[in-house]
Design goal:
Rossmann fold, Helicase, Ruva Protein, domain 3, 4 domains, 16 strands, 47% helix, 14% strand, flat, binds adenosine-5'-triphosphate, binds magnesium ion
Length: 461
């Protein structure tokens, strides 16, 4: 992009002339200032993309200009110009928030490279910011990323139901964002200043879950040394998030049904009935209809919970969101890990988009975090990604084999052909054998046998 606005501040008129001539020749729009205080006034009046300031200047020095720019013009990127022997100050400036420093005497070609890099970084940052602001405005749900039609449908429902008291059932595979959506609903409801209380029904042993939810009276059972308030009571006025509801045992299911119908319950071992004002959001990765058919889940409870179902699609069914999410997490981890990784290369992004993400957004988030920690250069290449993303060599096009004079082993040829197809199916599905089997129209056990026979192993990741 040319026409970017650059401000150069330096107390040497020769340097200013040199810079403005060279930078204009490159297509930049250049303003100059011969002292720090005029420079600051100019920053106040005009939005610069890049500010290049000398460090040592009479009265107001480069450090002060930098401080001012960081506070008043955070969208500008700053570079410090410094003489030999004052590199220590330059390092201070970087710590304070300058993007880079350049040493005098100036070498114009080096400077142009550095400016270009700084502007690229800045533009990417602004793009991400704009993207985020747009989403924020549109859905009001900060940090929930997704542009795909199916996830937008989810946002629409969330927006409609947030500020009501309706019970909500969130359905989706592991890592698709069920808890994130539950929180978005709570924090966009009139209950937002009251507690959001999550309970993971699968993680708490069922004999403890009852007293966890309802509380207990002192002496209600052997270990009940004192009275305990349960989560339904703690959440009064707020929202209870019942995660993995499909794992709740039948006895508790009927007690929960009563809470949903009457908004009242008793602590374990108590006679007094407690009324509670809570909204319930439940979530599961299971197919509750199947659980109902198998008599593992109460049908009446299912209908009570299923007032407003929200189905979050798995990431592989909204692959166009992958780059958005990658940018989002890159920005996030750059900030939290104090790194400055600029982007993923096209090949790296392609590999990420091609992958099937059995662990959904959580797996993607973990992948980006890992890469940000391990990589020290500023553009992430495909080789920087864990092994599971590496491309298999392109499969050989199906060939019509000609039988050579000396003959051919049919078994070996067929075997190789089979091995190649199985490997492709496994890579395509992120080594989820059910899915790979479906792709190959095999049943799972047959596929597993073949994998064993072919001695195929998932690469470490
Ligand atoms: N659309 C999204 N935008 C940004 N981050 C997301 C999005 N969806 C999920 N995440 C992030 O992915 C991670 C997993 O999400 P969350 O814990 O809500 O998933 P889950 O469906 O509850 O998973 P599990 O079933 O394993 O409990 C979280 O760190 C969450 O912030
Ligand atoms: Mg969860």
């Amino acid at each position: 992009m040319s026409g970017e606005k650059i401000l150069v501040i330096d107390d040497s008129p020769e340097i200013l002339t040199l810079f403005s001539e060279c930078l204009r020749a490159e297509g930049y729009e250049v303003d100059t200032s011969v002292d720090g205080s005029t420079g600051i006034e100019m920053i106040e009046k005009k939005a610069y993309d890049l500010i290049l300031t000398d460090m040592k200047m009479p009265s107001i020095d480069g450090m002060k200009v930098l401080e001012f720019a960081l506070n008043h013009s955070p969208e500008s990127i700053c570079i410090i110009l410094t003489g030999y022997g004052t590199v220590k100050n330059a390092v201070e400036a970087i710590k304070a928030g300058a993007f880079d420093y350049l040493t005098k005497p100036v070498k114009m070609d080096e400077i142009l490279v550095s400016l270009k890099r700084a502007l690229d970084y800045r533009n990417l940052k602004m793009e991400n910011l704009n993207l985020k602001n747009q989403l924020k405005k549109k859905y009001r749900f900060e940090n929930i990323i997704g542009d795909h039609e199916r996830i937008q449908k989810v946002f629409e429902i969330v927006e409609k139901v947030a500020d009501t008291d309706s019970t909500i059932l969130i359905l989706g595979d592991s890592g698709t964002g069920k808890e994130l959506i539950a929180k978005a609903i709570h924090y966009n409801s009139y209950r937002r200043d009251r507690p959001f209380v999550p309970v993971n029904c699968a993680a708490i042993p069922s004999e403890l879950l009852e007293s966890e939810l309802f509380g207990h009276e002192k002496g209600a059972f052997t270990n009940a040394i004192r009275t305990r308030i349960g989560r339904f009571e703690l959440a009064n006025g707020g929202t209870v998030f019942l995660d993995e509801i499909g794992d709740m045992n039948p006895l508790l299911q009927s007690k929960l049904l009563r809470v949903l119908q009457e908004r009242q319950f008793e602590r374990v071992g108590a006679v007094k009935t407690i009324k509670t004002d809570i909204r319930i959001i439940a979530a599961t990765h299971q197919d509750l209809k199947v659980a109902v058919a198998q008599k593992k889940f109460r049908e009446d409870l299912y209908y009570r919970l299923n007032v407003i179902p929200i189905r979050i699609p798995p990431l592989r069914e909204r692959k166009s969101d992958i780059p958005l999410l990658v940018h989002h997490f890159l920005e996030h981890f750059n900030r939290s890990k104090k790194k400055r990784i600029r982007a993923f290369s096209d090949e790296a992004m392609e590999a990420l988009v091609r992958y099937d993400w059995p662990g959904n957004v959580r797996e993607l988030e973990n992948t980006v975090e890992r890469v940000v920690i391990l990589v020290d250069h500023d553009l992430i290449a495909a080789q920087d990604l864990p092994e599971k993303f590496h491309l298999l060599p392109e499969p050989e096009p199906a060939q019509v084999l000609e039988i050579p004079e000396e003959g051919i082993s049919l078994d070996t040829a067929v075997n190789e052909f089979e091995r190649n197809l199985i490997l492709q199916a496994l890579v395509k599905t992120g080594w989820v054998k059910n899915k790979a089997a479906r792709l190959l129209n095999l049943n799972r056990t047959t596929l597993i046998e073949k994998i064993k026979r072919q001695n195929l192993q998932r690469p470490d990741n």
